[in-house]
Amino acid sequence: MRKKIFNICIIIISLFVLSQLLIKKTIIYSSILYALNIWVNNLIPALFPFFIISDILINYNVTEYIPKIIKIICKSLFNISDNMLTIFILSMISGFPSNARNTRIFYDKGLITLEEANHILIFSHFSNPVFILTTVAIFFFNNQKVGIILLITHYLSNVILGICFRNKNTISNNSGNYNYRNNDFGTIFISSIKKAVDTILLICGILTIFLMLSSIIINTFSFNSYNAMLIKGFFEITIGIEALSNLSISMLSKTVIASMFLAFGGISVHVQVLSQITETKIKYIYFFIGRMYQMIISGVLTYLICIIIKI
Predict the structure, then answer these.
(1) Domain total for the chain?
(2) Does 17 reside within a domain?
(3) Domain of 229, in residue numbers
(4) Is 0.90 topped by the overall pTM?
(5) pLDDT band at 177, cuts 50/70/90?
(6) CB neighbours of 208 closer than 8 A, spacing ≥ 6?
(7) What pLDDT, in 10s, does the model give residues 103-142?
(8) Residue 13 within any structural domain of the chain
C-alpha cells in the first residue's frame, strides 16, 4: 500500500512538472541554459580534471606512497584504514561527488569493507577548493577573505566529524586482491577519461533537472527573494549561493549561510552521491547524517571566525 501511494505521488508530481514545461516554456528554457552555463564554466573546470587524476592515482595505489607519519596521525584521529585515508585525501582535492565515487571504487575492488564504506561517507564530503576560492569567493562575493574562511571551516568541520565518529568504525586489514599494475598507463588513462566523462555528464543531467525544478517551484508560488534563495540552495548550492550573494544582508550572514549550503550540498549533490553508490549495499543514510551534523558544525565555526576577525 505504501509503495502504491508513493508511486501515485511520483506520477502526480511528474504530470505537474510536465504541465509546467508546456505552460512556462520561457522560464524552463532559461533555467536549462543557465544550468548548462554553470556546468560548462564552473563544474567541468573544477571537477573533470580531478576525476581523471584521482582515478589514475587509485589505479597506481597512491595509498602506498602516503607518508607514514600522516597515516599514523590520521589513524589516531579518525580510526581509519590506509585505504579510507586515501578516499579522504582524494575527496579533499577533488570535491563532491568524488567521495562517493572513490568509495564505490574501493568497495567494488574489495579494498574497504561495507562498514568502512558507510563510515567514510560521513566525513569525506568536500566541495572542490577551486570552486570555493574562485566561483564562490571571487565571482559571487568578490571577497577573497570569505573564500579562505569558507575553505577552512568546510575542511575543519569534516575533521571534527571524523574525530566525533571515530569509535563508530572498525578498522580492517583488507587490502583486496586488485592488481594495480595489471594494465599499462595508456589503458588506465583512457579508462579514467571514460569514467570521468560518464560522471560529469551525470552531474550535468542532475544539475539541470534540479535547477529546472527550483525555477518551477519559485515561479509557481511567487516566493520572495529570501525564500527563493533558500529553495535554490536546498536544491543546488551554486545557484543558491549566487542568489545569496545578491541579497541585501550583512556579509557575516552571507558567509554563515554559504558555509551551511556547502556543508549540506543541496539535493542535487545528494542525488549525485546516490547515483554513485546505487546497486551496492552502501547506505545513503550515513552520508545524510553526516551532512546534518556538518551543517551545524560548519555554521558555528564560520560564525565564530567571522566574529573574531570582524568580517
Answers:
(1) 1
(2) no
(3) 26-309
(4) no
(5) very low
(6) 32, 35, 36, 39
(7) 988 888 888 899 999 999 999 999 888 889 888 888 888 8
(8) no
